[in-house]
Every structure is written in C-alpha cells, then in structure tokens.
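User: For a benchmark we're assembling, each entry needs the component sequences followed by a predicted structure for the full assembly. Here are entry 17's components. Please fill in the structure.
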Amino acid sequence: MSEMFYWQALNRAMDAEMAADETVLTLGEDVGLYGGTYRVTEGLMAKYGEWRVRDTPISENSFTGLGVGAAMLGLRPVVEIMTINFALFAMDAIVNMAAKIPFMSGGQFPMPLTIRMPGGVAKQLGAQHSQRLEHMLMNVPGLRMVVPATPQDAYWQLRQAIRSDDPVIVLEHELLYFSKGRVDEMVPAPPIHQAVVRRRGRDITCVAYSRMLPLALQAAETLAAEGIELTVIDLRSLSPIDWNTCIAAVEQTHRCLIVEEDCRFAGAGAEFAATLQEHCFYLLDAPIRRLAGMDIPTPFNGTLEAASIPRADDIVQAARQMMARKEAAR
Amino acid sequence: MRFCRKKAMDKTQMAAMLRDMLRARAFEEAAAQAYAQGHIAGFLHLYPGEEAVAVGVLHAAEPGDYVVSTYREHVHALVRGIPARQIMAELHGKKTGISGGMGGSMHLFDKDRRFLGGYAIVGETFPIALGAGYAVAYRKLPEAVLCFFGDGAVNQGTFHESLNMAALWKLPIFFICENNHYQIGTEIHRHSAITEVYKRACAYGIPAEKADGMNVIAVHEAAERALERIRAGEGPQFLELETYRYRGHSMADSGSYRPNAELNAYQANDPIAAAVHEAEYPYPGIEAVAAASANSVTRFADHCCQEGHLDDATVERMRREVQEEVADAVTFAEQSAAPDMEDAWKAFHRNRRFETLMEVAR
Ligand SMILES: Cc1ncc(C[n+]2csc(CCOP(=O)(O)OP(=O)(O)O)c2C)c(N)n1
Ligand SMILES: [Mg+2]
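Assistant: Structure for entry 17:
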C-alpha cells in the first residue's frame, strides 16, 4: 500500500500487465522515448523494447485500427490516444471495428483491446481540447468504458481492462493525473464495472464519476456542516452501469442529484436520470436533478471555462435547493 | 553570404521581411514571458526559429489569398496583418482578442484578412484548405489558399485524402510543410518512412519543391514560384521548408529530448541573424572571407553587387520599434476587459440569429 499519483498508478498497472503477459503491448504518440504525454508509459520502452512500446506517427485512425487487427490475432494492445479529442479521428476503428467485430463474427473474435485516453476540461486548452465525449461511446453497444477517479481505481481498472476480452475504453482525466492517493496493489479490486458508495448520507444520492467525484465529496463535506447529508456514488464504469448500487442508494434517500462534466443535452447524465426514474419513480420525493456542463463549446477565457462546468459550489447550491423544496413542501 | 538569388529583391521588400521577422521573434518572446508570469494559460506553441517560413511565404501572398494554419499560428496571423494587440489579447483570453477570447492561442480567426483559423487537431488544415480551394475554384477566382502544416501532420489520413482531391480537381492550394523535424518528442526518422516530405506530393502528381526554411529569401522565392503556377491555373503546389523550433513543442515542454548539438547548429543558422546580416552587411569582413569557401565568396560578392543594403542604425531602429509595438500589445491585452458568459452565448448564437428556446436550468 503506497501513496502515488494517478499517472504513476497507471504506469504501475501497465508495467505489471506487461511483465505478466508478453502479449501485452502499448502504442501511441510519444509513448516510448518521450515516456508519454502524462508520463503513464514512462520507463516502459527501456524495459520492454520498441516492439512492445511503439511510438507512432500522428495517425489515430490507423494505429487504433492496428490495435484492433492485432487483437484479432490474440495480442492485447493498449492503444494510447493522446487525448479523447483526437479519438474523433479514430471513431471508425473504435465504433465500426472494435465494437462490432466480436459480434459480427458470431463471437469468433474476442477483442482484447484497451484504449486509454484522457478527456475533460483542463486548464484553458480551448474548445477543441476540452471535450467530454463519453456519451458518444456509451451509445455504442459492444464497448466497455471505465472512468477511474482515484489512483486505486486507475491501477486496478486498467489491469482489468487489459485482461478483458472486450474492448475497453479507459477514460482518464487530464486534471486527475497529478492527484494523489493510496494504491493497494495486493487487494483484488471490485469487478471492473461496479459502482462504489464513497460516502453515505440520508438526504440526497449524488451520482458522479471521474473528476466530478472529488468535487462531489468536497461539496458533501460542506453540506454535512449544515446538516445536509449526501450519499456519494462513484460510478467507476459508464458502460455498463451498475444500476443496482444506484437504485439501492436512491431508495434510501428518495432524492437524486447527478453531477457530470459532460454537456447536459443528451449527455451521460441523461441516461442515468432516465433509467433511475424508471426504477425509482414511486420512491422519489423530487425530480431527479442534473448538474452538467453548459451546452456550449468550452470558452478559452479561464473564468468562463470554469463556469461552463459544475464546480463544488454549484453542487452545494443544487443540494441546498433540493432540500429547501423539501422544507417548503412540509 | 547564405543568400544567393537569381532575381534581385526590392530593398523595401527586404526591409519589410526583416521587420516582420523581428516582430515575430519579439512577439513570441513577449508571449513566453506573459506565460511565465501567469498572464497566459493553456497551451502556448511558439515559433522562434521558424520565422523565415511564415514571413517568406506570406510576403509572397496577395491580400485576396486565404490562410489556414495550425495551433502554432501567432506569427502567421501577425504577418498576415492581424494587429499584435488583438493577437496578444486573444492569448490572454480577453474580449478584445481577435476571436473575442473564445478561441485562445490555438484558434485565431480573422475573416476580414482571410485568415481561416488556427486548428488544434493535427491534420485539420488539409480539409479546410481543400474546401476553401474548392470554393475559390467554384467561383473561378484568381485567389490561392495557403495551407500550413508540420512534418508530423503528413501522417494523418486527411493529408493523403486532401492531396488526392486537390490534385484531382486542380484546386488552387499551396501546401506548405513547416518541417521542424519533430512531432513533439518524436524525431522525423522515427515517425516517417519518407523523411523528405516533399517527395510524398509526387504520389498525387503535385509539383513539389524543398527549400531552406532558415533562409527567408529562399523561402520567398520558392513561394513566389509556387503561387505563380497556382495563379496560372496549374493546380496545387507543394513546398517543404526545413526549419527548426528553438523552444520546446509548447511552453509545457522543455524540448530536452533534442541533442544540444542539433539545437546549437540550428541556432548558428538563425534565420533572423541571417536576415539581419543579409540586410545590413554590405561587404564581407576579412574573417568572413577567410572562413568562407571560394564558392560562397563569389555568391556573396554577387549578392553585394546586386543589392542595396541597410545599415546598423536602421536595423537597431527596427528592433526598437517592434519592441515598442509588442510592449504596447501586452499592455493592451493586460488592460482589456475579460468577456463574460453573456458574450460567450452571444458568440454561440450569433449565427443562429439569437433564436430563443426554452431555458433549461443547469
Ligand atoms: C489529431 C491529433 N493528434 C495528436 C495531437 C497532439 N499533438 C499536437 S501537436 C503534435 C505534433 C505535431 O507535429 P507537427 O505536425 O510536426 O507540427 P509542429 O508542432 O512541429 O509544428 C501532436 C502530436 C493533436 N493535436 N491532434
Ligand atoms: Mg514538426
């Protein structure tokens, strides 16, 4: 058990899987000599050589497709796409190939492919470099997608992804790479798709993932001081979603607040809200509420950028409003 | 001494190019400083070392031509005539910026000056230029579209797809490869099977040339030739310019993966020092003559005969003036107001004619 950065946890996971299984390889822009844009592949080229740690040209569509083809022959490629914004060039490989081949072949070809990439709003990277596209990939049957929020999950979910025979998107977050946390490399992790309750409280179930999780926990602290108790669920996986954990929590609190960095319109949270209300409608004391990114390309200006996605304070406000309505209804 | 040209260049044009190179260097160094002071955030990709490319090419272009560039585009914008104030303000995310503070360093746009944008996704400049070229050809206009891109970008599928279509339909596109030998940390021999980029154009039957991207006059001449052919209706042209960036890929990158010897060699070949030298140095000094081979002496002698020259004082004055211009741009940027959310929504709705739909709470 040791304290480490999120990027280090990913690096350790890569190393562990590469050491354990020689069919595991990684490729992407600057993953080798440079050691990875966010240092995730640091040291791996020296240890495993260039056939297992391959620096690629800027050819996202084809090197992601390479991952698909190699997986069909039984390798376990871990494709790093520098950021999710560039994955738009690789959508054909991801959506038409990786997600479809196992099914179209009647199950003959498993797809032990992992695609790692960070998404999210970072610090003034502009509209083309600040996207949250998880909703697009959630809508593609055949893909799995995990969204680790802590170094511990980054470590274990990446290892599980590499071992999975399904194509798995590991959606990292640019602002989480330098967050720190304890990683236990011995204790086996919960199943790859399982949601985890990070905090229990009686009033509102707050559903969050990725970088919104630390914000939700921070807001929960503030709210606890004023007597509003949040249950905070870390989804950990966006495809599939562990509905049981969510439903059980909402059944206890009768209120649900969804927090996502994704844009609101047809975003990931729309799916959470729709499915949860189908299951929990009669137990809800209030409409499910969504806090999400504004439906606007991310402005470059720093203040506007910050205002375009939920902040801890927005979560606090929303929770207060939900509870005020409860008081008023009495 | 490094410059040898068939055609004499106009003295004022030479002075104008030198001034733009000095402006470019001063602008980028001021941006780096503002970044270090925390006034500029995000990615900041700077151009020092590559000035001869943008300056040589853009001085050969006409105001009616279109320019498409990448995220390393401040200098293209500056040389194209966008005021330093508006570029600097955009880098600062201010309302007075050329994109209203919505785009930032990587997304400068100026419709009036036909600057079709800086693009942050590598490989996007090709299809944008393709579409612009199509529109120009569609209207049978004499304009050209200048498409800038790096050596790393030619491995994107859009490069090949766009070159093919440009050649197929004879579109008036000038493809300009700024070959600085690096795709962030990956040196060209490790990212490209063919490292002489211009050779790739022959796969599509596009006439291609390679020129010394550290030599503004060589760049300018090659660009003029290409643009002439485009205007003569000969279809797309390709120019590879070998150059070097002195800084890291962006301010977030130290560039430490590059051998010192390599950096030093290119710094010795500084396009600005060379241009200053070219512009102000009428006769070779004794050491220069002694150090040069017979061939370069003749070349330089030829050159000296053909050209007029500037003097030290003029260059010094230029340096002072560009420093003042850039300092003024920085002050302007710092003192400008930031946009508010209302401005962002206005930018978003501007072309939707401000239709109003049901407001949904966040
Ligand atoms: C599609 C895409 N992939 C990756 C990146 C990340 N990236 C930004 S610049 C760059 C290198 C580009 O090199 P080059 O084309 O030579 O231009 P230079 O920066 O050297 O001017 C990379 C990989 C990106 N912006 N877009
Ligand atoms: Mg380059």
